[in-house]
Write a structure and sequence with these properties.
Length: about 270
């Protein structure tokens, strides 16, 4: 039976490092690492070829969840057993499962090479809420989206809330970040790929009346201010979700679900 390192003090450098990674986006970018919390996400990482740099778990989690594959993929001296009270210092959830891992960040490159005629994609500009970001990735994966492109001013894909909301989609799918999204849409147009600026107000065509048989890129903007003028100016069309109620707009993730469903349903 493998022996694991037991940690008991909050002052341990490994603990402090993991806590900072979970809380600090700039530290994640500087070190090229991120934290996953929860059995499903940690196991998803391993199944997608990500080898953890460190695993933190409680005895109770080891007894409850099938963690053998995760622990076998990680060097024994990088597997740390913690008492529940200490583990809670690592967690940002109300009911922690008692399992987290530190993983190396990865970034896909050459987004243009992913584009293809007939493909269906989502592009994001200035999305700030990590829960929305993750939820959009999860919806895109569920509907069969071919790729997700995020501008440089979007929130961090490795934010713990984004990772939880994405339920593994941000680890599995073609996700590209830190992009000049306006320039990218221009490049797509030069390739004959249409783009659709999602807006809340006229002038815009109802998304229910758009022919998406040729594919394209759905483009969504900031939760409060929407797309920038520079972004809408380079898109092929402006589209909107018809609404008969009194609400002026939809939550960004809810709007994305409707827009992507309309774009994908003809497949």
């Amino acid at each position: 039976m493998r022996e694991y390192v037991r940690l008991t003090g909050a002052g341990n450098e490994r603990i402090k490092d993991a806590v900072k990674l979970a809380a600090d986006s700039s530290f994640r970018k500087k070190t090229g690492r991120f934290v996953l919390e929860g059995a499903r996400l940690c196991l998803d990482a391993v199944s997608n070829g990500i080898i953890p740099e460190a695993v933190f778990f409680t005895k109770e989690a080891m007894e409850k969840y099938p963690l053998s594959t995760l622990l076998e993929k990680t060097a024994p001296d990088k597997c740390f057993e913690l008492p529940p009270g200490l583990y809670r210092k690592l967690s940002d959830t109300n009911s922690p499962q008692g399992i987290s891992c530190v993983c190396p960040a990865f970034e896909r490159t050459d987004p243009i090479n992913v584009l293809k005629k007939g493909g269906r994609y989502l592009a994001l500009e200035n999305i700030q809420d990590p829960g929305n970001f993750g939820a959009m990735a999860r919806t895109g994966e569920a509907l069969g989206l071919d790729g997700l492109f995020a501008g440089a001013n979007c929130c961090d894909r490795y934010n713990p809330k984004a990772l939880r909301a994405g339920m593994g989609a941000l680890l599995r799918e073609n996700v590209f970040t830190d992009m000049d999204i306006v320039a990218f849409i221009k490049q797509a147009a030069a390739m004959g790929i249409a783009s659709y600026a999602a807006v809340a107000h006229p002038p815009a065509e109802p998304v229910t009346g758009i022919d998406f048989s040729g594919g394209g890129i759905m483009v969504l903007g900031n939760e409060g201010s929407g797309l920038t003028e520079a972004m809408t100016a380079v898109c092929s069309k402006r589209v909107t979700v018809p609404m008969k109620g009194r609400a002026e707009s939809l939550n960004a993730a809810a709007a994305a679900s409707i827009l992507l469903w309309e774009m994908m349903r003809g497949l």
